[in-house]
Amino acid sequence: MKLHVGCAMWTHKAWQWPGKERLRAYAERCTAVEGNTTFYATPARDTVETWARQTGPDFRFVVKLPKRVTHERRLTDAGADVRAFLDAIEPLGPRTHAVWIQLPASFGPGDVPVLERFLRRMPPSLRCAVEVRHLDFFTDRAAARELETALETVAAEWVPFDTTAFFTSPPTSDAERDAWTKKPRVPRRTRALTGTPIVRYLGRDDPDRTVDGWQAWLDVVTGWLREGRSPTVFVHTPDNADAPALARRFHDEVRARLPQLAPLPEPEPAEPLTLF
C-alpha cells in the first residue's frame, strides 16, 4: 500500500531550501513530481541523469510529452520526436512512473482513434497517462466510454485535473486571476482505470480553502488504497507557495484514515551555521 504525493514543480522562489540541489531537497519532502518542463522541450540526457542522481529509485516522475508531439503534431507523424524524448528520459529508469500525454482542448471524441493508434505504438514497458480537456469527454457518456475503452486496451490511465474547488468563487489574488483564465473547467472525475491512478488537484491560495476542496478526494484515494491500488496525487495552488506542505498534509489526512499507510520521509535537518 503506497500513496505518492507531490507538486507541479520541484523548485519555487518561495521554497527556501538549503543546498544547490533543489530536486534533492524537494525529494526529501515529496515522493513524486510532475515533469511539466518537458512539455516545452525535450531535455538533454545529461540533465535527466542529474535528476536521477538527486532522487531515490522509489521517487516518481510523471513526465509530460513535448507539445510538439501532443499539440503541434497531435500525435501524428511524431515518431522521431517520441523516440528522442524516450531516449532522453531513459536515465530515470524506474523513477519514470508514467509518460503523461496532455492533449489540447480541441482534441475531442473524433480523435480517439488517433490516440489509440499512438498508444499502441508506445513501448509496453512504459505506463501512459492521458489528460483530456474537451468537455464532451466529461458530459457525453458515449464519448467517455469510447475513451475509457481505448485507454483500457493498452492499460493507460485517464488523468483528471480537478479544478472544481478553484472555480467555486471568483479569484482574490493575482495568481488566482491568472489561473482563472488558463485552467480547464471540467467536471470532477474519480474513476480509476488502472492500479496506478494519477490525480491533479487545484486548490486556492488560501490553504484552508484548498484543504476544504480536497475532502472528496480523501474518500476516493482511501478507497483506491483499500482496493490495492497505488495512487499518486499532485496538489496545486495558483501561487504554489504552500504546495509541498499541502501535499504532505494530504498524505497525512489519508494516513489518519489508514494508519497502516507508511509515513512520508522526514526532511534532513539543515546543517547549523558556523563561523568558520
Automatic annotation (TrEMBL):
Gene3D superfamilies: Protein of unknown function UPF0759. InterPro entries: DUF72, UPF0759_sf. Coiled coil: none annotated. It comes from the Bacteria. Pfam families: DUF72. This is DUF72 domain-containing protein.
